[in-house]
Amino acid sequence: MAISVKNITKIYGEQKALDNVNFEVKTGEVIGFLGPNGAGKSTMMKILTCYLPASAGTASVNGYDVAGSPQDVKRSVGYLPESNPLYFDMYVREYLEYAAGVYGASNVRKRADEMIGITGLSPERHKKIGALSKGYKQRVGLAQAMIHNPSVLILDEPTSGLDPNQLVDIRNLITELGKEKTVMLSTHIMQEAEAMCSRILIINKGNLVADKSTAEITRTTGNRQVVLVEFDKPVTEGELKKIKGVQQVLHSGNNRYEISASDKEDIRSQLFAWAVEKGLTILTIAKSDVKLEDVFRNLTGKK
Ligand code: ADP
Ligand code: MG
User: Fold this and answer.
1) Atom number of ligand 1 nearest to Cα 188
2) Residue 267: which domain range?
């Protein structure tokens, strides 16, 4: 087992950040750790990488206990922390050579070059880290996390703050890395976990609320699209519900509506045709993410 978590609880003062959490990650899995802000994702990742002790329970990585064998755990794990702290004044290659040295690599230059190749940093390798775009800074963070060739990668919100192009690049890179390594990555975006992970753990307020294959999660919560639309004139929810494919309509102020529909076909073309027929003008229309709150509701059956 690459990661094993048993009855982990973490209390910060009065705040219970993790409440008796249990899960396992098999070697080779790419697993998504999904939850809203404050759910306890970073806390769990810090415990698994020996940056924080748990208040109760046990956890191990590659069979090494996080409390008993932190050195072995750290050798097994590559960690990309949430804020990706980097030395902005160092050059990319200089930093990676330094990181390789910390882990006792025999040939730091060779190791840094290998990581530059794998993470696609070649065009930027002579720049100072502070001068890189956010996407390239994330690549440096990933290169650093993998410098000692760990078999397990723990990546805390690796795509947060990236623009759409960078996001796609980093997702692809992580998917590539996942072919060789066990990966646990956190995110608060459902679609992201679906895109990269074979299994999804969902955490909310320190409790694990789901541990299912991505296919299963998509079956219970997915096959859905959410579209935000604004008309120039008022319409009724009842009228909108009659459009083929529309499942749910929420009035979100003025002439704005949030429309959930099955994802068999893009509902936006239906909405356009319908608006034209009714003599309405669509002022804005945009696809939205399926909200985590809806996912929880569907999974837990709670209203
Ligand atoms: P996530 O990464 O899912 O956003 P975190 O693990 O960072 O969640 O935080 C979980 C909860 O623990 C939050 O309520 C947060 O405010 C609290 N918390 C995190 N770190 C600390 C800390 N050092 N001291 C006190 N409370 C903390
Ligand atoms: Mg976090």
Assistant:
1) 3
2) 222-299
